[in-house]
Design brief:
25% helix; BirA Bifunctional Protein, domain 2; single chain; 6 helices; SH3 type barrels; 261 residues; alpha+beta; globular; 2 domains
Amino acid sequence: MSTEPDWGGWPDGVGRRILTTLDSTNAEAARIADTLAAPEWILALNQTAARGRRGRAWANPAGNFAATLLMRPAGPPDTVALRSFVAALALFDTFVALTGRTEPFALKWPNDVLLNGGKVAGILLESLGSGAGVRHLAIGIGINLAHAPGADEVEAGALRPVALADETGTLVSPADCLATLAPIYAGWESRFVTYGFAPIREAWLARAARLGETITARVGAEAITGTFDTIDTSGALVLTTAKGRHAIPAAEIYFLSCETR
């Protein structure tokens, strides 16, 4: 593991700040958003108040990755939100670049990356805006690079957390991970801006966990079990059940077992 990252491939026009300790990189993004002149990555080597989806705590021991990409996106909120799929693809390709392996990784709708069936990374999008627009977007990314939370630190029914180092033998520093991720994200972002969601959707489906299999989507108190057919052009999960097809824009997803194929 190198002591100084190779920043030679860093994308043009994108800022970078690396901070020793923060409460949360997404919180820092909100604080500096009004001063933003260009997209910027914020990396925290230690987070004291990391958050996941729905305000849940996210364990972030030293050696793990916690970063946020802050940007001023164009387009309506529903289009801006599709960057969760852009980020997922960038993470998948980053793991392949770091490990030289493709087969252990998969993407779990809506915003997780799996490694050998366990959760290795998560994505959290937060936006600031007024009216129908989005003024700033924060794409928060957490990766279990060196350590995975214990089973008692995740909610019941959740996939087991795993660490990249434990599952693949690849130990990489947060800064080295960022040096790999940033240009890969920039490439997918360029494709999204140039060609729209269609190629992103196709690429995401090619990497999707449990496509064509039976899964359960929990929406509030309702559980919908069916065959995972696709994601539609809005990014919604499409399940086929005994009562027909359902397009589900937001849900918690549960697999019948903790292994992906």
